[in-house]
Amino acid sequence: MTLLDDFRSWVSRNLAPVIFLLAYLFTVVLGNVLYSLPFGREGLLRSAYTADILSFDTLFSPGYWLLLFLPFLITPLVVVLVRKGLGRAVLALSNCVAEFSRAEYIFILAACYGVVLFALVRADAFSLFLNGADAVASVLARFKIRSQVGFFSLMILMSPLHFLSIYSLVRWMRERNWFWLGLSIFNGVVMSAFLIMLNMKWPILIFYAGLVLAIFVYAKRHAYLKTALGGVLLITVYFLISAFVFRLATIDPAKMVQSTDVSVVEAPLTPYVSRTKILDVGNAATKNAPMLVFAAVNRMAIIYPYYYQVFTREGAVCGGILAQAKVGPVCRPSTLIYTRMFNDGFNGRGTAPAAVHISGYALGGWPIAVGFLVFASLVLGLFTCLPLELNSVTGALAITGAISGYHYSQLPIEGPIIYDHGLLWVFLMLFVFVIYRYLLGLFRGDFAGSKKQNL
């Protein structure tokens, strides 16, 4: 048991980089290793956009493998250096953030939920969520939902509310208080409903993953068993929500044309099914489980050969860092690669993102790839410096850092920071809270001083 406890303690302290490397390993590296094997090559021949990579002259070259495995060489070293150099500074800053009082938490939570609920109702998200008789229509509904809900409301849902939900769970596990247990259940139910209405599978899966990670770190008993059960729940939810989002039918996957061709936006290459065939989501998920497993492994992995081929042979065709820093550039690596892969009706909207260093390679080759990876590793290293036992705020921040680790394994450098699920919005909320607490302390001090003078 001591060995297991030591392992859990080590993973908990290093959760952000561990999740980054594990997510990258299973979603990008594993697929590419399989592609290099004989049965993997046979699998690539099942569809045109996967078979195309076999003609790439850069496929499985030394540079191809070096860029693929670069995070395992750089990230651990950077994290160690960050812990040694910035650990005390992070600890000092952590002491500036106090726990939310019950009234403060309820006020912030109610305000956030109010904003999101108003946006979802105004966008008629529930009706749009149920629309879409096939995978293409489902993705069109998703684009419309996101457009009508708006960035601000999505940001509140995917960042502050996500953090606040994790916070309530962490605080309950630390204090064993019925108030925080009730809020944890409430947040789990409401957040599930709101996230599902986006008609996307990854937001709800990432939300549940955050809760499972919180249980792993803070459960006082049977942490491994509870985490394993949470993992089973995650897999089950993945199959169920995928079956609905893809509008899959309850038919034999072997009989479905192009059933394994699921793009990053999961749109045009899944088979058409009528709405009457998607009512039995559980049966559809079971019937299509092999295809969904393949999609999970293949989804991000197949993108990497395209990135390495295009940006090795053609250079930074979308421009460098300065060009990408402009608002709304004509060319983004993620949309360019999507078009090269699929060239369908979602060109310009469909995206094929890649991990932070691969995205950096697209903007300027090896120097930018290494620089972006060092920056991401530095950010993840800062989360390893957080004192997990100080309070529930730092605990929830550590879990949030782990989620950003996942995002860095899938997205460019700005994604985990300024996208709707970005870290910036959580830290901005906490900054405003710290200022509020400081001003409140000054006011109470002045009020107490004036009261003594009157006496």
From TrEMBL:
TM region positions: 15-37, 64-82, 103-121, 149-170, 177-196, 202-219, 231-249, 366-386, 393-411, 423-443
Q: Which domain of life is it from?
A: Bacteria
Record keywords, A-Z: Membrane, Transmembrane, Transmembrane helix
Q: Which residues form the signal peptide?
A: none
What name has this protein been given in UniProt? Answer: Uncharacterized protein
Query: Which organism was this protein described from?
Result: Pseudomonas umsongensis
